[in-house]
Amino acid sequence: MALALILRNAPKIQAGAFQQNLIKSSSILMVRDLAPAHKQHSTLSKPSHSLIAPQKFSQVRLMSADHSKLWPMEKALSVSMIALVPAAIAMPNIVFDNLLAVASVIHFHWGLEAVVVDYARPIVVGNILPKLALGLLYLISATTLGGLIYFNINDIGIGKTIRKFWAIKE
User: Fold this and answer.
1) Total Cβ atoms within 10 A of residue 150
2) 54 phi, psi to nearest 5 deg
3) How far is residue 106's CA from residue 96's CA, in Å, rounded to a whole number?
4) Tens of pLDDT, residues 143-158
5) 58 by DSSP, 3-state: which?
6) What is the pTM of this model?
7) Residue ranges for the binding site for a ubiquinone?
8) Binding site for heme b: what residues are annotated?
9) Between 20 and 30 A from 162 (CA), which of 83, 96, 101, 138?
10) All domains in the chain, ordered by first residue
11) What is the number of other CB atoms lying within 10 angstroms of the CB of residue 18?
């Protein structure tokens, strides 16, 4: 979950640094002195141009997230789960159970985070609801991961639980 947050915000941070460099490079502007000529005492003692700082720049709206670095990781996780799920069921142990818990929570978190970011946009629902929904999603994901790991350590684990469900007969 923290990895998702870092990867999704890395392009914003890089773009923000680019904007800051752009603003710094253009922050000193040569502007003709607008004071009337009779108020200027001497053209030799005072330059004909003065340096002034510009007004605030309007911020360029960035995309909500750049998924170019995250998509390959999401695909790799999905492909790895094709082998991990049967392995956790066929050979249930603490390692496979914990790997399955982490992989499934990350997989669900990324999917639900995409839903929250796409449908709870600040333009549509205001500024508070998207932050609240994303915070609630992080809380649910962390709680789910903690519960699954607790279940794996203190009980029979995910793999054996699935085997027991399949063993139930009418």
Assistant:
1) 11
2) -75, 165
3) 15
4) 999 999 999 999 999 9
5) coil
6) 0.61
7) 119
8) 107
9) 138
10) 2-57 (no CATH), 67-167 (1.20.1300.10)
11) 10
